[in-house]
Write a structure and sequence with these properties.
The complex is a heterodimer of chains A (about 400) and B (about 220). Chain A is an alpha/beta fold. Helices cover about 35% and strands about 20% of the residues of chain A. Chain A folds into two domains: about 1-275, UDP-N-acetylmuramoyl-L-alanine:D-glutamate ligase (3-Layer(aba) Sandwich); about 285-400, Protein-Tyrosine Phosphatase, Chain A (Alpha-Beta Complex). Chain A has helices at about 5-25, 30-40, 45-50, 65-75, 90-100, 115-120, 140-155, 170-175, 245-265, 265-275, 300-310, 355-365, 390-400; strands at about 55-60, 80, 105-110, 125-130, 160-165, 180-185, 205, 210-215, 225, 230-235, 235-240, 285-290, 290-300, 320, 350, 370, 385-390. In chain A, strands 2-3-1-4-5-6-9-10-11 form a nine-stranded mixed β-sheet, sandwiched between helices. Chain A has a six-stranded mixed β-sheet with strand order 12-13-17-14-15-16, with helices on both faces. In chain A, strands 7-8 form a two-stranded antiparallel sheet. In chain B, β11 (about 170) and β12 form a beta hairpin. The termini of chain B are far apart. Chain B has a single domain, classed as Rossmann fold. In chain B, about 30% of the residues lie in helices and about 30% in strands. Chain B is of the alpha/beta class. The chains are: A alpha/beta (about 400), B alpha/beta (about 220). At the A-B interface, α7 and α12 of A face α1, α2, β7 and α7 of B.
Chain lengths: ~400, ~220
């Protein structure tokens, strides 16, 4: 790509690659974000330049953006640039595009950064999955994000296509300003952040498969639908078999296939290729720890947690939950009270992580039996696979502790 | 005890359901009948012994204030009902508050306090001295609240901001208010019991739960800052 860059862009790219190879050599991580930061510092328009002449899909949401990005990459072709897990701000995007000559890119994008990244990358498609409360101690409250998305999308070029979850009123509010929206009817269990209308704050009325407000704002007609493992995109139905669990992931795949169809990839082909995804940075994978099998499940916020708890099989006997409240998790664990742990009544939870007492207090009030684990050596050793649900840094602690 | 959780869809941003849950559970475990009534914005305000107000974003906070001004809440309090409010709920109880800009928005005037917008948002753990006890919690707000001369603060701030960096919340004969949001009553079992005892007029038997350990852990952690 560098032959298309301005002299300043080339200089920034050289600096970025130097930093990346240095940080890899000194063992300070994969270096992608550090290099991206340096590149952007030298040349703030680097992301715009690197985005030229590429077909770009942006994926943003509170939950599911990493998985949907991975599914979109798998469904597209063999040569797609994409950002490393978690590096979903411009420095990560710059690093991903600088490292690849591919003319196709799928970029997972942080919710708050989406407006700026749309402006820099001029994407073909923006995929918007959902918006809900997440890390309120360091992020903006969720309705304000919907408002910013809407403002950014209303300034976009006519050619932009938005693939939007029609069951999330906040996503619908942000997306409706775009001419070409592909509305998707996918399972959306979390509704607590859009009980009042994003347009007029009156109460939203819900029925089984619809929602509306007295101001006229209502669910749109959908061209992508999901029923169990059947996905239909623009009147064509496909049977989907993913290697990752959960009805919510079938919805993610349906939205990825809808985005890829805009680019010109047939859903029959893309959905088939998505089967190759069996775990994303450890998520949904089964790992070993001291003779136990751990099913690694990441849940970072109430909507993600609720969705995951609902998808737990009744046969999964052992449930371990690890909660931290470090900076990357959000330092306020109040959100535990927004998760309906009541659905675990009759089962037992082993409480792990820095904030295991916060979790135990929540479970006690939910009348779920629990054990507070101060010493990991006291954990049981069942023969069955353990469902380990952890939030961000707790997940990463357990990834380090366990082996593939 | 009837506990009315007011407009959770507007005032329920930070796990505020935790307070209703802690109040009802800690009552029920002592054999005190307790029920939680969730009040939707389309509902009439039910009769209750205790009204709970949670935290909320700017738009919903304004709407909640509009609805409550028209509701019989003031009348109910005049007739003896109690109120426990946090964060946006605290601000709504006063004479005025400001959201989205600096315009003063009309509150319920149940208490002589007023809230203006501070220069910075205050986000982090809140730790205060309330009588012989400590209060632990988390705050996330941009308000600066000043108390009228006859209004007593709930606590003295040891860490965090509360109303103004010195005091947190307020307390009257029937009303408690704090900037510590969400599950503050789940995290501070002594305060939860104080509210139950006051509202029901009963002396409570001791109740030991894992919340005591959580409370001790937070007090220890915050005392060292």
């Amino acid at each position: 790509m560098s032959n298309r860059l301005s002299p300043r862009g080339v200089l920034a790219l050289v600096a970025l690659r130097t930093v990346n190879s240095l940080s890899r050599a000194t063992g300070r991580g994969s270096g992608t974000v550090a290099g991206g930061r340096v590149g952007l510092a030298i040349y703030p328009k680097l992301l715009s330049e690197l985005s030229k002449h590429r077909d770009i899909i942006l994926v943003s949401a509170t939950n599911g953006k990493t998985t949907t990005t991975a599914l979109s990459v798998a469904g597209w072709s063999n040569n797609v640039a994409t950002n490393a897990t978690g590096a979903n701000m411009p420095a990560g995007h710059v690093a991903a595009l600088a490292a690849s000559k591919a003319t196709s890119a799928v970029l997972e994008t942080d919710e708050a950064w989406l407006p700026a990244v749309i402006e820099s990358t001029n994407p073909k498609v923006v995929v918007l999955l959902n918006l809900s409360r997440d890390q309120l101690d360091r992020a903006t409250e969720v309705r304000a994000i919907a408002e910013r998305w809407r403002a950014a999308l209303s300034e976009c070029s006519k050619g932009l296509v938005v693939v939007a979850n029609a069951n999330d009123p906040l996503v619908a509010y942000a997306s409706e300003v775009v001419n070409d929206v592909r509305w998707c009817d996918i399972e959306t269990t979390w509704t607590a952040d859009a009980v009042s209308c994003p347009k007029c704050t009156q109460s939203i009325t819900r029925s089984e498969n619809a929602w509306s407000c007295s101001c006229g704002f209502a669910k749109q007609h959908c061209t992508t639908r999901v029923d169990g493992n059947e996905v239909s995109v623009a009147e064509n139905s496909f049977h989907v078999q993913l290697s990752i669990p959960g009805q919510f992931n079938v919805g993610n795949a349906a939205m990825a296939a809808t985005a890829l169809q805009v680019i010109g990839v047939e859903p029959s082909k893309s959905l088939m290729s998505m089967r190759s995804i069996s775990g994303i940075a450890g998520r949904f994978s089964v790992r070993s720890w001291q003779g136990r099998k751990l099913h690694m499940l990441l849940a970072k916020n109430p909507a993600g947690f609720d969705t995951l708890l609902k998808s737990l099989s009744p046969e999964s006997e052992e449930i371990w939950i690890a909660i931290n409240a470090r900076v990357a998790d959000g330092k306020d664990p109040s959100w535990l009270y927004d998760v309906s742990f009541e659905q675990l009544q009759g089962r037992k939870v082993w409480c792990l992580g820095d904030r295991r007492l916060d979790l135990a207090t929540r479970l006690d009030l939910a009348k779920v039996s629990y054990e507070v684990v101060d010493d990991l050596n006291s954990l049981p050793s069942p023969s069955s696979t353990i469902e380990l649900i952890a939030n961000y840094t707790a997940f990463s602690d357990w990834m380090q502790r366990s082996t593939p | 005890m009837k506990i009315a959780l007011i407009y959770p869809e507007l005032l329920g941003t930070y796990g505020d359901y935790g307070n209703a849950l802690a109040l009802s559970e800690r009552s029920l475990r002592r054999g005190i009948h307790a029920e939680v009534l969730r009040v939707a914005i389309t509902d009439d305000l039910p009769e209750a012994d205790l009204y709970l107000l949670g935290g909320g974003e700017d738009g919903p906070q304004r709407l909640a204030a509009d609805l409550l001004r028209k509701s019989p809440l003031r009348q109910r309090v005049a007739n003896g009902a109690h109120v426990f409010a946090v964060c946006a709920g605290l601000q709504i109880l006063g004479t005025s508050f400001s959201v989205e800009g600096d315009d003063a928005y009309e509150g319920l005037s149940l208490v002589d306090v007023a809230t203006t917008r501070g220069e910075v948002r205050s986000v982090g753990e809140l730790f205060s001295q309330v009588g012989q006890n400590k209060l632990v919690g988390f705050e996330n707000h941009g308000g600066v609240t000043s108390l009228g001369k006859d209004i007593a603060p709930l606590g003295s701030v040891l860490y965090g901001r509360g109303n103004d960096g010195h005091h947190d919340g307020f307390v009257t004969d029937q009303i408690w208010a704090t900037y510590a949001h969400g599950p503050v009553l789940a995290m501070n079992p002594w305060l939860c019991d104080e509210v139950i005892a006051k509202v029901t007029g009963t002396k409570l038997s001791p109740l030991s739960t894992v919340a005591d350990k959580l409370y001790e852990e937070r007090v220890t952690s915050l005392s060292s800052r």
